[in-house]
Design a protein that fits this description.
Helix content is 0%, strand content 50%. It is mainly β.
Length: 114
């Protein structure tokens, strides 16, 4: 069974940085396109960043060059480096394949204070 485990969230001040990790188990993900999503309270889940098996990346408009998605296939892990964080980035961050079709993990909470 595929399991996705996110970590690295926390409480930071506006302008700060965090590095999120998504560890996948149950299968090898090197051939999959993977993505980070986020869900803020009362809002729908939204796509943040995508990385293909070849390493090509795309980002949501709201990222504005502040985030970097990367992957380490040897570790079956996807990362999201987040810089210049804003209060509106506060959300639970989750990873999945893209399109998402594996069971969602618990996510990791990111809280940005003003």
């Amino acid at each position: 069974q595929v399991e996705l485990t996110e970590s690295g969230g926390g409480l930071v001040q506006a302008g700060g940085s965090l590095r999120l990790s998504c560890a996948a188990s149950g299968r090898t993900f090197s051939s999959l396109t993977m993505a980070w999503f986020r869900q803020a309270p009362g809002k729908e889940r939204e796509l943040v960043a995508v990385i293909t098996d070849g390493g090509s990346t795309t980002y949501a408009d709201f990222v504005e060059g502040r985030f970097t998605i990367s992957r380490d296939n040897a570790k079956n892990t996807v990362y999201l480096q987040m810089n210049r964080l804003k209060p509106e980035d506060t959300a639970v961050y989750l990873c999945n394949a893209h399109p998402a079709y594996y069971p969602w993990g618990l996510g990791t909470q990111v809280t940005v204070s003003s």
